[in-house]
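Hello forum,

I keep getting stuck at the same step: I have a sequence, I want structure tokens, and every attempt I make locally crashes halfway through. Rather than fight my setup again tonight, could one of you with a working pipeline run this one for me? It's a single chain of 297 residues.
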Amino acid sequence: MTPQKLKQRYSQSHITQQSYQPSDYESDVNYVSDAPPPPPTRTNDELNLSVLSRHDPAIASILSIAPYAVVYIFSPASQQWEKSGIEGTLFVCQLLPSELGAERYSVVVLNRRSMDNFRVELLDGSDVEITDDYVILQSNDDDGNPQVYGLWIFSEPPPSSTANSRAINAQIIQECAIQAETTRKMAEQNIQADGQLGEEFEIVESEPMGRQLSLKELFGQQREQDDEWSVRSHSPHLKQPQFVPSADTNFFRGARRHGEQQQQQHPLASSPIQQSNHGRNLLDLFRTAGQGHPLGT
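Reply #2:
Ran it on my machine without issues. Output:
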């Protein structure tokens, strides 16, 4: 190999080593990552509840799950069960309480075949019947017409995990319906009791307690009574009580006339001595009146 060829090979290998040598800026890229953090892990129940809440926001929790169920509708014309076209995972859910505070429950089947899901609210224990093949639910459809549904819940023989799926979910559905009925009736009774107490309270408040008189009316009545007394005392046409004279009244009348005559003949001076003898003069006056007018005349 000639020296020129050795020089070319050395220069190419040197260039190759330099091209793969990372710089300081390129090495920093390995320590900085723009990838988003991993999502928080959630349980299957949380994921199922998130999915169900999109279909029904009133769902509060999941009580039981059946991996697979088929919804049948009973046909009154043919007296047979007919498939409704809904099949999938069955959920027994607890809903938010009603306005009265009663507990609410529902059965939901997420349809695998279409977007039409099955949902029935459990209202009464008598609306649920358990048979060997179906869990029968009585409810109303979207138009308000009564409808009978049959839920066929898949279960495998033991020792499979779904061996008791039908029996467990059927029992939970029936218990939820009874609980919903019980709490609803208790809430209605409480409302009726509160209403009766309110009516009795209104009746007690509406009873008459005697009309209150204002000050104007009160003093007006008193003034009318005073006016009537004044009219009786000063009206000449009204009958006045007659005065009957007696021996005592004649004695005082005669003493008064005799005193007036002496006062006209000998008027009294307004001196301190005469004023001090005023009581004695009155005694003499009564004595002289008694001599001039003996009692009993």
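Residues 268-276 have pLDDT under 50 and may be disordered. If your local run keeps crashing, start a new thread with the error log.
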